[in-house]
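User: Can you help me understand a structure? I only have the sequence.
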Amino acid sequence: MSPVKQFVFSAVASVDIGWLKRNSPLEVLIPYHHLVCDEYLPHIRPLYAYKNTRQFEQDLDFLLKHFNPVSLTELIDHQAKKIPLPQKSFLITFDDGLRQAYQVAAPILQRKGIPAAFFVNPAFVDNKTLFYDFKKGLILDKLSGMTLKKNLREALKSLFPDAKEPFSPQAAVRSIHYLNQSLADSVGELLDIDFAAFSAKYRPFMTSDEIRDLISKGFQIGSHSMDHPLYALIPPDEQLRQTLESTQWVNRHFQPGYKAFAFPHTDQGVSHGFFNQVEAGTKSGLDLLLGNRTAMLENHPGVLHRFIGENPSVSAERMTKAVLMYSILRKAWGNSYVKRGQ
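Assistant: Let's start by predicting it. Here is the structure, written out as tokens:
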């Protein structure tokens, strides 16, 4: 964590939570996670850190003490029908449809009586495809434990002709993105990593039956794009396709009775035109869209913003206080709303 962020979290720690709640313009807090796990996961841990079960439970206890849990449908009804929410609410969300969200996080949430929403990518459900980011994680995990021979290093370097000197295999792998994701397969082949075998053995994503089990236990589900692109990298028509097709797939397979979508990566690079086409009440309207512009508000109805909740170095108390303070400051600066291109 950067020194600036460390300073911010330290500075806000002593601020009274009651004062922050009274003065923040935010009606609901929506932290997002990907998973909760006590183990080292080689496909994920080289990419980002996540909370263990003890940390997750402590976070939930803090939220329950100071805020009121609500469900995804309560949030939708509030946005669409103006049905009031309990004062200062929160909704726990999980992205990507990971197995540990089902096996580890969901039982904890159920035991504590906390609703949650899980956003899935059709391409990954039932482990049909391995997310290219997870291929990057497996590559980085293997690179961390090996010394590259000269010929292998040169072979890797040849795959990244635009890489900066001195060449860093780790930096090159981290630079792989949605549009050049086939590079991950090429690197994996050079390093003798069998992605298909890993996916079959470790089953990183939930199955359809596990998703149905979540629904049967009272949890709710939404879409998260077809295969997790960074929307800023794809044209507007593809942004729209990814959104609508994934939502239609979720509704066709699981019949949730509503249409909820959470942007993969970030909603930066998404224009007003996109939201006008998916706005609630239109032919292709969605009931709720979740972005991740921390502590910000949206001019479009049915759009709310989340913040990351899974950083193990930041407790829910500190993160929540920082988010509330940030929203108060943005309001004072007259800069609460997301600014978008046409």
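Now, to help you interpret it: The CA atoms of residues 266 and 292 lie 6 Å apart. The mean pLDDT is 95. Let me know which part you'd like to focus on.
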